[in-house]
Amino acid sequence: MTTRQAGYGIQPNSALEETVATAYIAARVDIQKARLAFEQAGYPLAGLTFPVFAAENLFGPAGAKPAGSSFGIVHIADDHSRITLFERGRLVLTRSVRSGITTLVDALSEDPSAPLSPDQARSALLSVVSETDGDAPSVPAPCGRDEVLSLLRPALQRLARQVERTLAFYSVESQTPRVEHLYVTGVLAPCHDITAYVAEQINATVHPLEPFEQLDLAPGVQAPPELQERTAYALPLGLALSQWERTPNLLYTHQDREKHEYRKRFQKCCFLVFLLLLAAAAAVDHWQRGLAEKRHAYLTSILSQLADTDEPITNDRIEAMLTMARQELDTRKRVAKRSLALAVFAELSQKTPEHVRLLTAVLDLGHPPLPTTTPGSAAAGPSPANGKEPAPPTLVLTGYVTGQSELLESRLVQYIIGLENSPLLNQLSLKTSQTESYTSGDVLYFSLRAGIAAPRPQGDTQSAGAGK
After folding, report:
1. Quick one: pLDDT band at residue 310, thresholds 50, 70, 90?
2. CA angle, corner 100, sides to 99 and 104, nearest 5?
3. Model-level pTM?
4. Is 265 in a helix, a strand, or coil?
5. 456/41: higher pLDDT
6. How far apart are CA 176 and CA 173, in angstroms?
7. Strand 90-97 and strand 181-186: pairing?
8. Are 186 and 195 in contact (CB under 8 A)?
9. What is the pLDDT of residue 122?
């Protein structure tokens, strides 16, 4: 996949500090091709990123922790080499140079003393990488190990010069000390002679990157015994340590990431609502349990009181209690009946203003006094006279309203409204109203009829309930 690096910055002035950003750009077509290729192979991709970010994961929170705050990684590939610098585990600079394995192979094949084909030159280079000469393909007789290393020195010197310039550039631009610790990745990383020569040229510490040294492996898992195999796991381990919040994923645009974050927030809200509903259900259950315990305690106390009673509860005893309750209710009704007239006239005295003069007030109770209830006839109740229901009590008022002529009718209406608000009077009706002249002025004569709402005596409802 072809990538392109672009830098964007803001020029400094007296009020602003310099801000520089580096962007890695990849063609959408290349990304789709990579995704489709893995899907056709049966391994759909979960993510796709650049090698520099995979290397950054090795030195993140879950990866290795090298000595010092600044370090770099030199990755030697076939047709180029990538120089990456890190500050406190974060990527700060990356640069690609054309010096790579192909450059080293060309240096071996262009030697006039012992011309080699490209395949022979590559085999000779790989033989130097192995810890012993027998681990790689055989090298032609004219090219021993020392001779191969001597032929590689000019190309390695050019690579070291590019690394030195990169370190010096970053030190000047960032105004920080020069990076003194470098890691080497790629096929040539296990070769101690190559890393030692580069370290000598740039005057820095150079080691092959072994990702297994700073990682906590699971029990029973061991790192490969060969150095060449261990260094080959640097990029796969970096990809395995990728994190959604830290590592850029080329398969998802920023709109996809926003949708992912929205789904995460929605799921958290749903979980929070579920917890609130669960807490509410637990509170209601606790409240219901408390009510059940109170009712159980109340029933237990009643049963204990019944158990302590010497006289048992029988039907005869219940009938006697009901008769006593009815007698008390009849007594209260007689008292209320006798006090009804007094209550009505007291209410009239409070509701009648000074400009209303009452001439007559006739109270018709409508039925004879209640008969005395005996235990033998308690259930019979009062019997209406002549087989008819007694008429309801009524009140008839006559009088006149004084004052200015234009205010007489309004004052009468106010008086009627005041009587309607009384709890003892209801169904008010104006029978007659007539204006007449008087010695001091005009007066409005009127005649009213109202029904009496006799209040129920206290205890009527409870006694009636007991009678049922």
Report:
1. low
2. 95
3. 0.51
4. helix
5. 41
6. 8
7. unpaired
8. no
9. 82
Encoded tokens for 413: 């209406």
- Between CA 53 and CA 238 the distance in angstroms is 8
CA 433 to chain centre: 73
- Per domain, the residue ranges of the chain are 46-251, 339-375+390-467
DSSP state string for 383-446:
--GGGSPPPPPEEEEEEEE-S-GGGHHHHHHHHHHHHHTSSSEEEEEEEEEEEEEETTEEEEEE
Q: For the domain 339-375+390-467, what is the CATH code?
A: 3.30.70
In the predicted structure, residue 463 carries a pLDDT above the cut 50: no
CATH code of the domain made up of 46-251: 3.30.420.40
Q: E strands along 203-282, which residues? A: 205-208
Q: What is the pLDDT of residues 379-436, one digit of tens each?
A: 444 555 455 566 778 889 899 888 888 888 888 899 888 888 888 888 888 888 888 8
Backbone angles phi, psi at 150, to 5 degrees: -65, -35
Q: How many whole angstroms separate alpha carbon 224 and alpha carbon 202? A: 30
CA distances from 90 to 52, 59, 192 (A): 11, 8, 27
